[in-house]
Response regulator receiver modulated metal dependent phosphohydrolase (Thiorhodococcus drewsii AZ1), 676 residues
Amino acid sequence: MQNPPLVLVVDDTLDNLKVVSGLLKKTYQIQVASSGEETLRLADRDPRPDLILLDIMMPGMDGYQVCERLKSDPATHDIPIVFLTAKTQPEDEVKGFAVGATDYVPKPINPPVLKARVAAQLALAAHLHERHQMLHQRIAEVSEERDRTEIERQRIHDRQQALLAITRAALRDLTPQQFLVETLDLLNAIDWLDIESRGSLFLFNRHDELVLVAEHGMRISQRMICTKTRQGSCLCGQALLKRQTLFLAEVSENTQHCIMGPLGVGGYSLPLTEGERIYGALCIIMPKGHVPQPGEQDFMHEVADAFSGLIRRRMIEEKLRINQVEIQMVRNEVIRRLGVAAEFRDTETGLHVTRMSQYARAIARALHCDEELCELIELAAPMHDVGKIGIDDSILRKPGKLTAEEFATMQRHTLIGARILEGDDPLIALAREIALTHHEKWDGSGYPHGLSGEAIPLSGRICAVADVFDALTMERPYKEAWPVERAVATIESLSESSFDPRVVRAFSKTLPDLLAIKARYQDDAIDPRELLPLVNQEQGRQDWIVWNERFSIGIDIIDEHHRYLIYWANRVHTAIEQNAATPEVAKALFALEQYTRIHFRAEERLIAALGRSPSELESHQAGHREFEDKLCELRLEIAHNPFIAGVEMLDYLRGWLIDHILKSDRKILTLPVQDA
């Protein structure tokens, strides 16, 4: 039950206090005070009076002063004050109202009037108090709504700025890894979002498996959990099946196939979709027990949309780049095969043009030519003898020495090649230059135009040495292969007559590299007893696979093949680990695939020459075909989704190469003690 209102009666006369108290005590709680000072003390403590009946004429502090003090104090300002006084002149009442009184009751007191005035003032005070409370409540609500609006406005601003920054980042040439890190950093900068700045990106491969293509803030053991998983078998997979954003405040530690489980945290799994196309999922780690803020899930959905847009755009760009690389590689292969076609009529070998072009590149590098020119020389050199297509077989394949007339006819192949290779394309123009001038001699005694010295283009001078070195050291229909020492001595003796002395010095300087190239691309069966000088393989301690002596199987040429395979595997690894553009990965993988075929065929010829059983050879060939098929599959995977190239590819390459060299090759190629 609510207590009755408290009325404070103030008068310096005891009888007046008794009379007023007696009139009101049945209806109200009564307090009395006989001075202004006592009034102030009682009014300033709890419970405060609901109404004060105040005499004006008192010793010390009079009623006017007391009223002024009470009204000046915020704690007592709203207490209604009614003057009870014998001062009834109009100016007295005016002064009373001026200092804050709410009513004026003259003495002698009329009891009914006093009771009515007290009741009216208390009712009015209660009404005003209720209105004040309602007003304060409304002010608080408005203030709270304003704060909420400001918070929401700030969050909308933060979201817009973050999405704008993410969208701008998506327009830059970033890899998925770089874009993931930048996105997580942008989200982490939003105070109210409270993310862990850790996450991962999964995309589908050709087999409908989610593959981890980018991560940030994860340990290796955590990354391996989701290297590859089937759709639907984890939180991200569930998000993709339902095609909706999923949030868990905490993932159980025993949750299978979930990168969040071992972390003991929660997070978002965001499907990356665009129309009917599903690219994969984005996982963003949140602190354990995180409670999503209003609009947070919508914001995360917008982040996923930005990621989907990036993936779509970058996939289109990367596929276009890969297509361009493939077109370039096909063009290069057509050029090489055109050179092979000319050589095939002469020597029935397809590897002369490969060796000669790589010799030319090595010599150009030793001359400190820029890398672009070195590469262009390697691509153009295979067409150096394309003009032989126009020379009769009776001359090309004649086992003995040519007559003067036949030699004059043979010389025409340079002019025929130049006519075949007319064009403005830089590669074709350089190929024409090489075809026309690689038989010119430093002293002017060459053909077809008798150019001398530096009037002969550098490309022609380089290819002249490269062509002669390969011609001397490889068997031809009309001659046996010369020993390397004799070929080198002959070339060095022709310096300043047939060859540019500077090119000959570069040739001698890079001879170990040339011998490695010769070993890699042999036409005939490998001699297991042939020894090679130590070659600089450009490998270091930081290489992914470092060649060491435990990889050696005791056959120098096969060891060189294996070194070269490892070199290209390292190139693939470097391209992936350094987030190089996907075409760089595709180039390295294509080169590895090309050389793998050459190595496997040479190795299989050696196995047959060593007299191994047909079943052993077939088993080894089956392993070779399996690896070739896998490389082809990896290349197709990159074409399907350029961002898949990653951990799975690298693990397979390293595992297969090391296992094949240390086990399979060592077992079948190890020579008997008497043959070693």
Summary: DSSP finds 23 helices and eleven strands in the chain.
